[in-house]
Amino acid sequence: MSHIPDENTIISYFHRDDDMAHQAFSWIVDIHSKRLYTTIRRWVNNHELTNDIIQEVFIKIWNNRKQFQGNSALFSWIYRIAYNETVHFLKKENKHKSLDIDEPIVSFSHQSQHYGKLGAEEISKLLFEAIETLPEKQRMVFEYKYFDDLKYEEISKLTGGSVGGLKANYFHAVGKIEEYLKRKLNH
């Protein structure tokens, strides 16, 4: 089979005990590995560790494939596993997230003493420093909402948190990031 079938077909094959389950798993890896890498990479410090976590995520997906009931999108189930594996890894290794800086993510007004003096990389670095100061839950909620543009309902499925609690976490995260940036840019 050269094309990737729809999600329902993939799931029906994935639950089987034959070669089609392996084919379905291969499609899942093809569909989701790049996005998993991007998400997990933001939470850990380097490429090798990200790949180690992704490998563990896919092992868990395969080993627990019959537990997926279809009550949520396959994407939500996979990202829930990735979230749990990453949190487990971060706690176990006591690592802190470090992000690659490609493009500017924030800007500041013409009134700032830094206007025109800081480059995109420096501005983005300040944002990522601010994000690293957040408590783990606020940081992950902020990243899902800000970088992945997920709805609170989707984040709830991934993290197990209530929509109201997630909104509060995001609100507090934004406030803390704004305060951090104001302090750094107005010193």
Structural commentary:
By secondary structure, the chain is mainly α. It has helices at residues 7-14, 19-43, 47-63, 74-93, 120-132, 136-146, 152-159, 163-185. Helix 2 runs antiparallel to helix 3 (47-63), helix 2 (19-43) packs across helix 4 (74-93) and helix 6 (136-146) packs across helix 8. It starts with 6 loop residues before the first helix and ends with a helix.
Roughly what fraction of the amino acids lie in strands?
under 5%
Assigned CATH class of the largest domain: Mainly Alpha
Structural shape: elongated
The amount of helix comes to: 55-70%
Number of helices: 8
Derived structural class: mainly alpha
Poorly predicted tracts of residues: 95-110
Biggest pleated sheet: none
Radius of gyration from the alpha-carbon trace, in angstroms: 19 Å
CATH H-tier superfamily of the largest domain: RNA polymerase sigma factor, region 2, helix turn helix motif
Tell me the CATH topology of the largest domain: Rna Polymerase Sigma Factor, Chain: A
- Specify the oligomeric state: single chain
Number of strands: 0
**Overall pLDDT:** 79
What's the architecture of the largest domain, going by CATH?
Orthogonal Bundle
| Topology pattern, helix = H, strand = E | HHHHHHHH
Give the tally of structural domains: 2
Ends distance:
60 Å
